[in-house]
Design goal:
single chain; 130 residues; alpha/beta; Rossmann fold; five-stranded parallel sheet; 47% helix
Length: 130
């Protein structure tokens, strides 16, 4: 019997960074969806019900933190794990991300081993709690 693959939604406006994240997660055997606009993030979260979202903060239309707050307000998504990955890494930025509901806040640039480790930790923690 195979184990169901976990799914990750990438929300990142830089196409090269988004594709790099997609490849990182695919080689780690995750099913991956991506969107390049924050306006699509909430709709895709509802549609795919991912196990985790990796989200940038600095997005052109709507801040990733605003989208995170919107996700937290939707029934069924309020506990969806979200990891923020952003170049905004001052202590006030990190605190704002955690206050908005992120489970982790990681600073760009981030290494593949560090990102995969944190993602696995968050998903494993969620799997245990469910």
């Amino acid at each position: 019997m195979g184990i169901d693959r976990k799914t990750i939604l990438i929300v990142e406006d830089e196409p090269n960074v988004a594709e790099m994240f997609v490849e990182m997660f695919r080689v780690s055997d995750y099913e991956v969806y991506k969107c390049l606009t924050s306006s699509d993030a909430l709709e895709l979260a509802r549609q795919y019900q991912p196990d985790l979202i990796v989200m940038d903060v600095m997005m052109p239309e709507i801040s990733g933190l605003t989208v995170l707050q919107q996700i937290r307000a939707v029934a069924g998504l309020e506990t969806l794990p979200v990891i923020v990955v952003s170049s905004n890494a001052l202590p006030k930025d990190i605190q704002a991300g955690l206050d908005a509901g992120a489970m982790a806040y990681l600073a760009k640039p981030i290494s593949y081993p560090e990102l995969i480790y944190i993602v696995n930790e968050v998903i494993d923690r969620e799997s245990i709690e469910i």
